[in-house]
Amino acid sequence: MERVAYMYDSSKCMGCRGCQSICKEWNDQKTDPTTFTGVYTNPPSLNPDTRMIIKFYDTFTPDPNFNFLKYQCFHCGDPACVKACPSGALFQAENGIVAFDVDKCIACGYCHSACPFGIPQIGKVINKCDMCYSRVMEGSESDKTSTPACVKSCPAGALTFGKRNDLVEQGKKKVEVLKNKGYTEANLYGENILGGLGVLAILKYSPEKYGLPKEPVVPTDIGLWKGILHPLGLVMLGGAAGFVVLHRALNLGKKGGDQ
Amino acid sequence: MAVKKIEKHKKNTRIFHWLHLITFIVMLWTGISLFYPWTNVLGLTFGSLRNAAFIHKYLGWFYVVLPIIYVSWNFKLFSNFFKTISTFTPEDKKWLSILGGYLHPIIKADEIPPQGKYNAGQKLLGWIIIVFSILLGITGLVMFYYASFPGFWVRMAIIVHVFCGTFLGAAVIVHFYLAAVNPTSNKELGTMLGSGMIEEDYVKHHNALWYEDLKK
Amino acid sequence: MTSLGPSFGRGAMTNPLIDVKNSDVIMICGGNPAENHPAIARYINMCKDSGGTVISVDPRFTRTSSLSDIYSPIRPGTDIVFFGGLINYIIQNKKYQEVYMKNYTNVSWLLKPEYEFKDGHFSGWEEAKRMYNYASWGFQTGPDKKVLKDMTLQDPNCVFQRLAGHYSRYTPEVVENVCGMKKENFLKIAEVYSSTGAPEKSGCLIYAMGLTQHTIGTQNIRAFCMIQLLLGNMGMAGGGVNAMRGEANVQGSTDMGLLFHTLPGYLPSPNDKLHPNLQEFIKKSIAPDSYWVNAPKFIISMLKAWYGDSATKENNYGYDWIPKWSKPASWMHIWDNLYKNEGIKGMMIWGQNPLVSSPFADKTGKALENLEWLMQADLFETETANFWRRPHADTKNIKTEVFLLPVASMVEKDGSATNTSRWLQMRYKSVEPLYECREDSVIMHDLIHKIKDLVKADPSTPSPESILNLTWNYGGHNHSAEEVFKEINGFEVATKKQVPGFAALKDDGSTTSGCWIYSGMFPPAGNLAKRRKPEKTGLGLNPEWGWAWPVNRRILYNRAACDLEGNPWNPEKYVIKWDAGQKKWAGRDVPDFLPTKAPSDAGGTLPFIMLTGGQGRIFVPGGIVKDGPFPEHYEPIESPVANKVNPVQNNPIAVVFKSNIDKYAPLGDPKYPYICTTYRVAEHYQSGAITRKIPITVEAMPQVFAELDPELAKELNIKDGDDVELESIRGKVKAKACVTTRVQPMTINGKKYHVVGIPWNWGFVGIDPDSGKDESFAANLVTENVGDPTSLIPESKALMINLRRA
Predict the structure, then answer these.
(1) What's the pTM value of the predicted model, to 2 decimals?
(2) In what order do the strands lie in the sheet with C241-243?
(3) In A, residues 214-243, which contact B (CB 8 Å cutoff)?
(4) HSE-CB of B214 using CA atoms within 13 angstroms
(5) With contacts defined as CB-CB under 8 Å, which chain A residues touch C69?
(6) pLDDT band, very low/low/confident/very high, at B183 (cuts 50, 70, 90)
(7) Could you tell me which residues are beta bridge partners of residue C635?
(8) Which of B146, C327, C740, C795 sees the fewest Cβ atoms within 10 Å?
(9) Tell me, what's the ipTM?
(10) Where do the domains of chain C lie?
């Protein structure tokens, strides 16, 4: 099955938050009390009721400017959260979407600590963008119910959903166009990092300006977790049991009283 | 003639041990069900894996708070205990080197050196329980408030926590066997879960140095 | 609207929203479509994808500016200086589309020699009366009464020469000094935009309230119209003057006669002095030499729609029954009248929130207190419905009886909306109205029938026929939008057959039509506003999606998209062309021209068929636009600086309301040193009456904020998120501080001035965190009751305030 993805073109985005609103609506999320703190970004960060926010930036250049980032799970090709999840609630579907089975989540928070971005939010259970997995798998093309809700809602045409390979090609072309317009830092975020992200972002400026890690990696200790600790635990418990068995075997026939 | 008995463990200690023991078993049971996929099924004892997680997260506070209460209320008693288990005599070292004789003849142990109130193995266990419980508490706290710590520290805490929990579990399995099952030592069970009393003859044999101290 | 009509013939957005993708250059001034008409962003982006350039000129760098390639700030209220500078640039650098300008506009017409502009006034200024005598604002005519023209454009009295002279004062230096727009930015913008003067290129101008809500608002747009006429951008794909109307169905509302001075289809509203009887009314509605010569057909058909069989030739089709206005009843006039207790006793407010959206909160609130009764029909309790217990109200002493009627939302009723592009699209009832909510039409049905009963019972009612004879057959409690549409479209009285369009309307009482410009929307074939067939390729005109007025014409004045021979200026993006073989105009759009009139026929090269003379108006004669035939810069009523362009400080006939509560800060008042402008945010709709009751929008944009630049913030010790207070001479409002470089101080004549902006979507009723406090957070606490003389729109975009930490 080919990997699907969607691409966010920040040069087409105008920060209207149609996507943020429809994500809340479609996923039946609660809202939380917020206040105006000096930036338009609200809620100020992802939280257990908020899977996706638009982040606003107006300090990228000394001249007046306004830039936006659609921020949510990036659906890594090599998802650390899936590796870390002890209960197997998080999984990577064949088409690359990283989704989760809420019934299996134990709210341990390991996914949050494993994610190079710290994206999964844990309330009673995990909450993060699942690329509208049920829409993608069960929707129909004809009435566009098979695309994520955010993609469908965008009035500016900044979001496109489809085969990842196609989107990467389009994204790279757009980056060239932006570079020709003078945006020397323009880049396609997510082309190769973390196994290639399932959410590609065409950025006008370098990722660090947006607060994104330039070269994030899956933490090496994740491998330690399941790769080493599990067998080690087996050894330890097995060793204890083995001692017991051995002792009994060596002391068969000896009854109570003195040694 | 009535069997002469010596008091080994006071009532407070016994109650504490009992409570902490139950707590630990539940913590181990739920902990193992959460972090080892092949044991996820154990979580169903509590209805669901999520319930097991909930119990583990919140009972953990009790696991840490209970010893603090016990130590505060019985400080002198605990200090003595702590002094005892912190003193490793040459006899203790010898005892450890032959693994208490438990695996004779695989580990040769012709002669078991005389032991105090607690044999070297029990002293070691005391340390393991105290140190690893503290580690479990600290790492457990970091895991409880995972959102307030950098991801790296949480992940390290998880690794240490799981290791300590499993190790402690293994130690407790051995401890349980020796204290309650092994025919040559299961009289100890009564000192903790029974009347707190142990037969004098037993003490003379197993805890010779303690017997001498008591005689003084 | 009040500028588009006089310049081109119809007061409406000339091109569809989608059409902006066809532009070579888009310039957005005084508008923030990304936030307020987000649907257009897709097409702005498509324009850029095709290589187009987008220019944004705005006092702040908005979310629309983030889509632009070139941005410049501008001092609120100084747009005419900028546009005048552009006109001057176009003329000096010969960037105009010469053939188009000479033939499709009135640049060649000879003005009366008495016409002049001197010292800030146009000729005919009568100081004592403080008004203009418009006699000199006209053209020289020959013995045949036809206007004299000079196609060489050399005659010193021709419009072109007068135009050049008038705008020669608007140099790039003046633009920099008055607007605060750096000279190099201005020249760059001028160069880029005027490149659309090339015949095959098109540029579109987009604007919204940022240009219209000024005492010179009409003239702002007039300047836009003139620029487009000079550059040959009217009628072209990707051209046009594109008004982003301020509400989703305001176009539909004004089409159907919402404004006090118009009837449906923009027929004039009968005035007791000017139109004492039907004959006078008809005479004054006809504009000879234009399509308005058909006005009688529209008027009679409309009266037949209102009164059905009761309207006959003998009773002048009921004309005598209807009330005529004697005093202007514009928005600000109504509230002034009510405040001064000059006659209004009761008020019905449908889906509107004047306490927040009116220019002066305090005056509006006190005015409402004078009502004997108020009916508010709305989805939610609004600030207006709660005026009697608004913050600081003397509730005990307010005697108004207030009725709050819950009405159905747009998804709970059938109807249509006419978007800013003049497209009528059906909207459908998806659910039955909840709880006790009723559709407005159902309420109106009950109301009218009850009023009819009361009128019948009371013989002293003046002009009872005006009510009793109204036909009202729309299904009653099972309201049928279709019945309304059929009547709006019109039908033959005898056969009840729907007319195919307004060309079929008659002035002999044999046809009806509720709104002639909508005639053609529901022909015998069916309700065309229901159509939803998207076009696959092409310009985005989508002729089978919905129905556009007039007659499904998508781009107005499209004859002008072709040269004198009828060939398109831009063959690739052609709109219509003359087919010599078939002897008719045809193409991708409905021709805005008599289809069979050849280019070589008389009038075959006059595209602006709704205007006398058929040529677009660079010069608007006769006081049709009341404050000038050419736009001229005047400072906003509250301004920090003297007018440097001419000696008259403010628009001499700006409508300034005087009362014991209306106050205005004098020029350069040090108590109010900062320039303030108002706007909206994407997340909230109008006064927030609906969106501040929706959790998702409140979460995204919870509180009102004031945007100020970092320098001013430092001076006043204000940090992000601080509580600040804006104060004008009329009132105060608190907000949260948003310190940002998107607002820049401007240097005007060597001195630095700061601009502070505040959105107006907040009030005191809602689930947002500031509602329910004993405080209102509506921006109209500081704005003022002054208005444009032609449109009477309030000047909400430029006023003077003080700012401090609260």
Answers:
(1) 0.91
(2) C70-72, C53-57, C25-29, C203-207, C241-243
(3) 219, 221-222, 224-225, 229-230, 232-233, 236-237, 239-241, 243
(4) 14
(5) 181
(6) confident
(7) C650
(8) C327
(9) 0.93
(10) 4-250, 259-326+480-518, 331-457, 655-805
